[in-house]
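Researcher: Predict the fold of Serine-protein kinase RsbW.
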Amino acid sequence: MILKSEIQNINIVEKLIDEISSRYNIHSDVYGKLLLAVVEGVNNAIVHGNKLQKDKDVVVEYDINDKEILFQISDAGDGFDYSNLPDPTKPENIERTHGRGIFLMNHLSDKLEFNEPGNMVKMVFFLA
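Model: Structure tokens for Serine-protein kinase RsbW follow.
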């Protein structure tokens, strides 16, 4: 799925996850994690990666088998240093309005990986 970098396109991703959930009979616990983490990943790609530039695309891919579902989200941005993120649970960061997305994605998915420049994320969710 290829999306333009517009916030309203997150609705398309939500519908995709609903369709996948129905088609593959995804358990509600996994569905909730999947929805929150993937929407957060797409939001990050649109806002931070592509900086809301409508001419830049976000690519959302998924693969599913009996054991897991994988989502890969990539943007056209330069990436970021995913290895050096502030901990949003530390007192000095609690009041910040940004910085929780990757923390959430990491805790909701069973596996989280970034490519080297940091403009692509893979999230794996175990189905069993």
